[in-house]
Amino acid sequence: MWRVIQLPTFLVGQFSKTLHAKIPVPELKLPNPKSAHAPDAVDQQLRCVEAPHVAVLVDTASNYGRGLLEGIAEYLESQGPWSVYLNAHATGTIDPKWLKNWTGDGILAFVENRATENWLKRKRIPVVELYGHLENSSLPTVCGSDEDIGILAAQHLLDCGLQSFAFSGYLDENWSRLRQRGFVAQTENAGFKCATFDYPRSVNALSDWEHWQTQLSKWLEARPRGMGIMACSDRHAQRVLDACKRVGLNVPDDVAVIGVDNDVAFCQLANPQLSSVADSPKRIGFEGAALLDQLIQGKVSLAEAGQRRVPPRGVVARRSTEVRSASDPLIADVLRFIRDQNRYGSSVKEIVAHFDMPRSVLFRRFRKATGRTPHAEIVRARLDRAKHLLVHTSRSILEISEACGFEHPEYMGAMFKKLTGQTPGDYRRERQ
To answer: Which of 33, 39, 253, 350 is the most exposed place for a label (fewest CB within 10 A)?
Structure first.
């Protein structure tokens, strides 16, 4: 016989095909009613065939929240189904009255304050937090690695040949501070200082918006030209772009800007289009659902669940970091030539011929402007392209090495491990 789990009609897209699945339920062989253990036996059989009741509390207004749902749905395709209550407009705070009356088996949550964390702990049901916004949370957590996000953004701007850096984010938000920490550490490790500008996360009144945009504009205007700035999110990057326009700063020539989340709607509507660090919400959703499933089944204890941080997928480069100006304009042209997607097979010989300059002059000016040799930059550009193809395509290592200008996949593998500490295969598995 079959049993159909009916879900509320407001559940979105990908859940419908997974969660409205038919679950085979075997007929129960009822024990002898005279047995003292008969009720427990029946209850146990019922629990074995009933799908777990799980609340999913995410904010689908963001690219991150939508990615979480995709990952959860993918997990349920192979391991579910669950009976799901979905709150697609979660704010990080849970109504304690709802929580008190809800009798489910587990929660995938968005938690932003200590009171909500304590309510969830008192509920004594399995919970996995998916955002990582609350500092030193004691809840089992699967979330992004914010420090790694900052490091990746800094490295992208360093690779653009920039030598002046800044970060703007939300001082009172733990995730923003972690991104700032990674960004500042990476730029300082490269021998550069990093300026910072703190902005309030919530600006409601128009007068407050104008005040803070004016302050940000004045701060940017006082910074040196040819600067690279990381905004803590794509939404905040919009504010940075607006502030640049207010004081006549050209992006990317005067200021290169990079955000976080790779929210395509925000990035492509921005003027110029916004470069962004792509985090891993789909993988976080998948791993978070898997961890909650293990907690519900008792396969993992709270102590074993701990905190799991998933690395970002990479940088999606767009117009806002296509730096034209540099201390040496000719070397800026060489950098663009090397990083043109159609020239990953370029060589030093080809560069010398294209720019009609002696090899010794190219090496001297290139090292002075970037601190690297032209060959090292060519390899770096090829490996950046390889990273993108490893994460965003299913092409084989051989196909990727050929597409990126490497004659042999073994050489690509050796250089890849030297730069990243991982083999191409390990890098792909960690981010897909």
So the answer is: 33
Measured CA to CA, the distance from residue 15 to residue 256 in angstroms comes to 39
* Residue of 267 and 43 predicted with greater confidence: 267
108 and 211 part of one domain: no
Which of 8-17, 244-253, 367-376 shows the lowest mean pLDDT across its residues?
8-17
Do 224 and 296 share a domain, yes or no?
Answer: no
Question: Count of alpha carbons within 13 Å of 345, Cβ hemisphere only?
Answer: 9
**330-347 pLDDT, tens per residue?**
887 888 788 765 556 678
Which residue blocks in 202-280 are alpha helix, DSSP H? Answer: 206-222, 234-246, 264-269
| 97, 119: one domain | yes
Last residue of some domain: 296, 321, 346? Answer: 321
Count of domains in the chain? 3
Is pLDDT larger for residue 396 or for residue 344? 396
Asked whether the predicted pLDDT for residue 14 surpasses 90, the reply is: no
pLDDT at residue 205 in the model: 72
Cα separation, 64 vs 82, in Å, equals 22
pLDDT at 260: 97
Residues 6+ apart with CB under 8 A from 409: 397, 398, 401
The more confidently predicted of residues 23 and 318 is 318
Q: How far apart are CA 297 and CA 209, in angstroms?
A: 49
Give the integer Cα–Cα distance in Å for 86 and 291: 18
| 266: pLDDT strictly greater than 50 | yes
Separation between Cα atoms, residue 351 and residue 289, nearest integer Å: 50
pLDDT given for residue 388 in this prediction: 82
Shared-domain flag, residues 137 and 211: no
Task: Tell me the three-class secondary structure of 29-58, residue by residue.
Answer: CCCCCCCCCHHHHHHHHHHHHCCCEEEEEC
Q: What is the CATH number of the domain that holds 55?
A: 3.40.50.2300
Mean predicted confidence (pLDDT) in 78-84: 90
What local confidence, expressed as pLDDT, does residue 431 receive?
74
Q: Distance between alpha carbon 218 and the CA centroid of its chain, in Å? A: 30
Q: What residues make up the domain containing 353?
A: 329-431
Same domain for 292 and 376, yes or no, is no
CATH code assigned at 425 = 1.10.10.60
- Helices (H), ranges, 80-162: 96-101, 114-123, 146-159
Q: Do 257 and 306 share a domain, yes or no?
A: no
Q: What is the DSSP letter of 320?
A: G
How is residue 418 written in tokens?
């030297």
Do 251 and 153 share a domain, yes or no? Answer: yes
